Each structure stands twice: as C-alpha cells, then as structure tokens.
Amino acid sequence: MSTVPAAKPVTSPRRGRLIAVALGVVVLAAIAFDTTVVHIGSEQDARQQAFSPDKYGDDQFARIQTFVDGKAVDAVTLGTELLADKAGAAKKYGTASSTGAIIPVKLTGTAGEGKSGIYDLAVQGLPPDIKVRVQTGPAINGTDLRDAPGDIAFGSFKNQIEYQNAGSGINRAMKKTVLDPLDTSALTGKTVEVTGAFRLINPKNWLITPVRLAVK
Q1: What pLDDT does residue 44 have?
Q2: What pTM value is reported for the model?
C-alpha cells in the first residue's frame, strides 16, 4: 500500500503581499504608540536642547535686576551697620550663601583710577575704613548676581560646570544690557550712580557687580 504525501498549502503572491502589509501596519502602530511628538519651540523641545548659558542669562537677568533694585540698601547705612555688627547686617540685608552673604547695595560715588575694568569709588559719608570697587568689564567675574536672589540652586543643573556657566551667562547678560552702552574705559573722575551686589567676605572691602550704572 503506497502512501500519498499530503499536499503543501499554497500561498498565493497576492496573499503574501497582504500579510506583509498587515505586519508593517502593526509595526508602525507600535512605533507610533511609543513615540512622543515634540513641537519646535514647545516646553518639551526646550528641555531636549543643550543648556545655553547665554539664553539662561538673558532669561534671568531682568528679574535679578528687579530683585537687587528692590533690596538695595544705601551704602552709608550699610557700611555703618557692617562695621558695628557684620553678622547682624548680613542677616538683615543679605542673601545667605556658603561663601558669604550676597548684599544688594546702592550708592553715588566718584570713580578713581581703573585697573582691568575695576574702579575704586569714593563715596561721601561712607566710613573711611571701607574700600568700595565696581567691576565694569570686559570680563565680569564671580557669581554674585546668580546667587543674589537665593533661588538659583545647584540641584537645578546637570553638574557644577553648568551651574558655573549659568552665572557667567547672567554676567554677560548684565554687561550687554547695562555696561556695553557706556564708555566704561573713561570713568575716572566722573560721578556714577551704582546699584549692584557684592559678596560679603571682608566688611571693609566691597567688589560690586552692578545691575545698574549711570554716569552723571
């Protein structure tokens, strides 16, 4: 008795194409389900972009300027209180930080000789023991403006480099807005009005980073 082999199912070319198309649709649907559409300029798009210190500085400087304006204490009042009670004055007027309180201050003074963009300021009525300077660039150093409001924290950034760069971006935004319109190379002998902030390390030595500077 002979055995007849079973017939193999025959798949037509048309049926094969339909199966391939169906599988493709399933794969595309799975990809679409797992894909988030990010629109250019949206909040999600901003998060995915690399950190830009200059954009950050431009975004933050105006509110920092407003903060310092609102908190700035007259230099003569501040100087007298600092010499009498450094800790008390720092707590009263400053924003605490790990390397010295950031003190907003305002003054009118006469600019002395400038060196590397830093001018001594003679302020009438200020205790003579106190030396006041203001930095005008081209390089603006320090993170006093970044730290002045007290709400820009390290934890908001990826690492220390990004945190440091945020301070530099704010400084550049200040320079572009406040200092670049002025001839800061020729302030000697001129009366200037300054509003800014400095880090309180030595109460007799202030290096102010301005948020406003006007030449009278």
Answers
A1: 53
A2: 0.78
